[in-house]
Please model this.
Amino acid sequence: MRVRYYLDPDLGYPHIYDHKIIEEEIEDVLNRPGEDRKGAEGSRVVIGTTQDGRFLKVIYVLDQKDNSIFVITAYDLKGKPLMAYKRRLRKRGKV
Model:
């Protein structure tokens, strides 16, 4: 499936760059999600690990017309949200 990215309207590059994330990291998480659940307003929230071990939270929507994934934003999972995610993985026996 093709992956598209929200572009910063002022600068013209993917918004994920503002969070020091590159496309390959997004694709790592989308290909091997730890969690993928419903988000707000029809979006999806995926949490996972990149090949380098970085934990990311990615917000996206499925575009059925274009058969693609449209990534709105992504950022590092840190602090309490990261601890909660790891706890959920342990409960499911995935760690």
